[in-house]
C-alpha cells in the first residue's frame, strides 16, 4: 500500500526520533560519570540536569537539518555539515576526527572516507548512531530509507559493515514510524525480519540481526553477552543488540533506555540508536514515550535544527 506523507509529517516524525535519540545519548553519557551506577535508573534516581549530548546527537542534528531544509540529502552538503559542526569535545572517536578534519580542509569525502583505517574504511557505529531520524522521515518506504541511509553513511563510512549498520537502523526506524501511523505495534520478530530483508546476507550485521531474532524473549544481559553492547564501537558489535532492545520495547521508551544503560558498553550510542527508533514510534510526552522531564533535562539542541512543525 502506498500513501502520501506530507513534509510536515515527515519532519514531525524525524523530530520525535531526534528527541528520543538525543535524550538517550545524553542520559546514556551520564553513566560514564564516575560514581554513577546503572541501577540508579531502575531505582528512579535520575542524574542532575543538564545532561549534555554528544557526537551522536550533533551528527543526527545535521541529518535532520539537511532533510528539513532541502527535503532530501545531498551528500556533499551533508559531509561538509558534519565536518564544519564537529566539536571534538563531544566524544568523537579519533578516526572520525581525522576524517572530518580532512573533509573540512578540502579533501573530497570519498577520498577521506576511503583512506580511513589504513584504507579499509570505517566499520564504526558512527553512521548507525545518527541515522534513526532519517528512517522516521522515510516512514512511507523502507526501501527508500535503506537507500538514503546508505548514502548518508558513505560520506564517512566506506566499510560495508559500517554502512550495513546504518541501513539496519534506518529500516527499523522507518518501520517503527510507519507502524505508529498505522496505529499498530509490530511483533518483534516481524520488525527484525523487515530489517534482515534489507541487508546483505553476507554481512556480520545481518548475521547479528538473525541471532537477535533467535534471542527474542531472553534476558537482556545474556543477549548483550552474545550480540555485543558496543564496547568494540563497531557497527556489528553495536547494532544487533540495539535492534533487539528496540523491537522488544518498542512501546516503552523509558524501559528501552534503561536496558541499554544496564547492558553497559558504548551506552550513549546504544541508547541513542534505540531511543531514535523507539521515539519515532511512541512520540514525546505520550504514554510509553519520551518523558517530558527527561527532555527538559537534556541540553537544548542547536537552534539551526528545524523546529517541530
Ligand atoms: Mg557519543
TrEMBL record:
UniProt cross-references to InterPro entries, sorted A to Z: ADP-ribosylglycohydrolase, Ribosyl_crysJ1, Ribosyl_crysJ1_sf
Q: How is the cofactor bound?
A: Binds 2 magnesium ions per subunit.
Per UniProt, which keywords does this protein have?
Answer: Hydrolase, Magnesium, Metal-binding
The coiled-coil regions, if any, are: none
Signal peptide interval: none
A Pfam family of the record is ADP_ribosyl_GH
Q: Name one GO molecular function term.
A: hydrolase activity
Q: Which domain of life is it from?
A: Bacteria
Hydrolase in keyword set: yes
Cofactor names from the entry are:
Mg(2+)
Q: Where does Mg(2+) bind?
A: 54-56, 266, 268-269
The protein, known as: ADP-ribosylglycohydrolase
Originating organism: Micromonospora auratinigra
